[in-house]
Amino acid sequence: MTTFNALVVRESEPGNPKTAAAAIEQLTDDDLPSYDDVEHVTVDIAHSSLNYKDGMALTGKGRIIRSFPMVPGIDFAGTVASSESANFSEGDAVILTGWSVGERYWGGYAQRQRVDASWLVRQPAGLTSAQAMGIGTAGLTAMMCVLALEDGGITPADGPIVVTGAAGGVGSVAVALLASLGFEVTAVTGRPEQHDYLRELGATAFLTRDEMSEAPKPLEAETWAGAVDTVGSTMLAKVIAQTKHSGVVTACGLAGGVDLPSTVMPFILRGVRLQGIDSVMASTAVRDAAWARLVSDLPAALLDQITEVIPMTELLERGPAIMAGQVRGRVVVDPNA
């Protein structure tokens, strides 16, 4: 019987999430989940990644884990070991992001996982599994933000794009993508020591977290043609108030809070469009389109600059770090190291 390592979160007192703790355990295929009325695919995982949601799962904040025991990890890339689906065969390279994996269903912090075939997409040609997870959920989300800006008719000629939380995973990929497409990018970060890093990705101007966290007026000077916001709350409200007429603001994160202290003024007087971005339940067609664009539009050299690879054993240290805003770019997890 196949044995493998997995990072498992268990409650020491069943029914009491406050007692949950994570540890690496050795499991067998018999431990893997199965789901009703689905075609199962078992994947040998090559790489996963560390995202903000994973930090929540590893630290117990936000109670993002819905049932125990749980293997966290909201994404992974690997090779099909066995398949009940006609869409996937043994040896196929696949990617999984979203679908509440790592929250409701066992996820990527393991050497092996069994999932619903409909949650998988094929790994695009030209990407390794490490590169796929260097992009991962964060990069997919960033690409969906860029697609929404394009859908709203925003072009480089319309003016600068502002990216909040720019040194994080979504922000880093968004900066690199937008710059590679010819946009002028202003990066918002609370870490001035990351300016050189963001400049290498293509940012040309910088704003501090503090100045963009000040309570906005209903309307402020028209500055941005569009935005990628990963923060929410007051910062998102300020971005909206500063967006030009017919501009597009994409919202994909809540690191700063779930509230939105804004007014209707930017929407009814400037025609600003606020577009929510959800990569968790995105259709397979949307995912395939986004992955194809990532392969063509995200320079491999910039992806390498964004990415750090760590063994799965370091996750318990990195979970609190990402929650504290101390992680830069993308952290790829190697469960086999």
Mind telling me the CATH superfamily name of the largest domain? NAD(P)-binding Rossmann-like Domain
Largest sheet: 7 strands, mixed
Summed over residues and divided by their number, the pLDDT gives a mean of 96
pLDDT under 50 segments (min length 5)?
none
Number of domains: 2
What's the CATH class label of the largest domain? Answer: Alpha Beta
Q: What class, by secondary structure content?
A: alpha/beta
First CA to last CA: what distance? 21 Å
CATH architecture of the largest domain: 3-Layer(aba) Sandwich
- Give the CA-based shape: globular
In total, how many beta strands?
Answer: 15
Give the radius of gyration: 20 Å
CATH topology of the largest domain: Rossmann fold
Helix content: 25-40%
- What's the helix count? 9
Plain-language structure description:
This protein has nine helices and 15 strands. By secondary structure, it is of the alpha/beta class. Helix content is 28%, strand content 27%. Helix 1 crosses helix 9, helix 2 crosses helix 3 and helix 2 packs across helix 7. Strands 3, 4, 5, 6, 7, 14 and 15 form a seven-stranded mixed beta sheet that branches. A six-stranded parallel beta sheet has the order 10-9-8-11-12-13, with helices on both faces. It folds into two domains: 121 residues, Medium-chain alcohol dehydrogenases, catalytic domain (Quinone Oxidoreductase, Chain A, domain 1); 143 residues, Rossmann fold, CATH 3.40.50.720. The chain is globular. The two termini are 21 Å apart. The relative contact order is 0.16. The mean pLDDT is 96.
